[in-house]
Structure of Thiolase-like protein:
Amino acid sequence: MAVPTVLGELGLSILGLAAEYPPFSLKPDAIDTLAKRYHPDSPAMRKIIAINRYTGIDTRSSIGDPEHPVVNQAAPPSITDLHKVFMSDGVPLAIRASRKALAEARVDSSQVTHVVSTTCTDSANPGYDHYVAKELGLGQGVEKVLLHGTGCSGGLAALRTAANLCLGHTMRGKPARILVLALEVSTTMVRSELESIHALQETRIGIALFSDCASAVVLSNGLGDEKEPVYQLLGWEHRIIPDTEGDLGFDVDPVGWKVVLSPRVPKLTQSVLAPSYAALIDSLPLLPAGYRAPADFDWAMHPGGATILTGAEKAMGITPEHMRASYDTYINHGNSSSATIFSVLDRLRSKDMDALAPEGRVRDFIVGCAFGPGISVEMCMLKRNMTVGRAALSSSISGLQTPPETESEASSVPSEDAFETLGSSSTRRLETGEQEAFISEAMDSVELD
């Protein structure tokens, strides 16, 4: 295919998107409840309970509460147990998200040509995408691809894969309407992580960050009749940070999967942002003159943790307002791995998010970014259609909230004396001076797997 001579000439458009969260919202004391119910007091358990109060997450979306049967067995649930819950509680979320995205796209099930899906919290054959496609009534000839091993970058990896499939259909002169789907059920692994914290006396903070969600987008190659796009997909960039396989991952285990998260992750991800961004911009020479510096764009950053977001601010010279939907999603839902990025993009087009744009100016162009195992970096450029949006949520916010930068999701933990000073109160925001003192004492001693 020839190099585009007009911006958007690839013809790739997101026609609809949706996120579907489960009904339960876990506050930080949910982890306290299970920790005290099944494990004795220990230094590592006290540390994770304290960190859990300062992640900046108000609630994590979950398929259940601390009384759910799968997290109240004598032993942590097996992979078989987790799979059953993934299918019974997770797949319906994916079906609902898909239906919402297809409805907004005005794409009938008979028009869907491909399904590109991802998950890192289940592994079965056939994959969950088979059952979603069956429930949606998709044709027997629909081409399906299920990505595994992509972790938190899976949403954008699936979008990139769908984009290349779209371009293949364009070369053949055929319309493509691709359902891109992400589903994660992470909160059921809390017992497994608590068991490791207790047995190994490791400070494992994944249980304080991860949540459950399904999200979907419909990507089109523009051939045939279609509605106005929500976003145009203009380009993408993918790269691997060399020799970082042991820094970020999700290892298989008889009782589920174990989060791998080294103290190097925030600095590694921060260091790769600028070169990835430069390569993306270089690939899009037809961008308008006013869009060159990172602050010229809005950002849909996967909220892997508070330090991932604050690290992006430092590396790229942007503000929390540039990533307002990322912060909002992180605070209200937590990190839902691959499904989060589409939720962020959906949230970004809300009127209450527009009201928080930096300098009061909503950007036409958006940089999407996520990090995954490898460490892999996914970045893309989107153009927002300002004539297509969503109404403000009924619980609109009056100002942008950002979590305290405790760095708890990667690099360190306070001393036990600091924990006693913090007390046993529920989650609260730190004042600036208090936050800096907490960080300076807190971030030296932990080693995470």
User: Anything to note?
Assistant: The longest helix spans residues 79-105. The longest strand covers residues 231-240. Residues 406 and 439 are 6 Å apart (CA to CA). Residues 231-384 form a domain with the Peroxisomal Thiolase; Chain A, domain 1 fold (CATH 3.40.47.10).
